[in-house]
Design brief:
Length: 145
């Protein structure tokens, strides 16, 4: 069980960086377009969808770590309080919801300007939540250790 835990923890750690890169990419595509009359194309939508998908993957990995393996004595937050564990899980779930809002509401907005505005707003909110929820005291890149 320890090997599976270590694999999931490493994958969860690496995915953290992919999530942050996808979020920054989504903001780079949406924020500059807020000031103009640019058309919201598939190239603008793709990073928002990729960001939402990567957040969902990260949450699933985190729930696997927390739910199935956390009770086996291999707690990722053994050096921190139990309340932070719940904050980390709760903020991850909220981030998944806000990332979904960025993707879904930007697809359904009436105008291109509204699509950019909704995508930029909810992507920024999601990134802020994620930055708060990341345990920065942990190793920044954990590879099977």
């Amino acid at each position: 069980m320890a090997t599976l835990y270590l694999f999931l923890l490493t994958f969860h750690n690496i995915t953290r960086w992919l999530v942050l890169i996808a979020g920054v990419w989504a903001l780079i595509r949406t924020v500059p377009a807020l000031s103009g009359n640019k058309e919201f194309t598939i190239a603008d939508r793709r990073p928002v969808v990729l960001f939402a998908g990567s957040v969902h993957l990260q949450v699933v990995l985190g729930l696997l770590l927390f739910g199935f393996l956390g009770s086996q004595g291999a707690g990722a937050f053994a050096d921190r309080s139990t309340s932070y564990q719940w904050q980390h899980v709760g903020l991850g779930l909220i981030a998944a919801v806000t990332a979904t809002l960025a993707s879904a509401l930007s697809k359904r907005a009436a105008t291109d300007r509204a699509k950019f505005r909704v995508a930029a707003l909810w992507t920024a909110v999601t990134l802020l939540i994620l930055l708060v929820s990341i345990p920065w005291w942990r190793p920044l890149l954990r590879l099977f250790s």
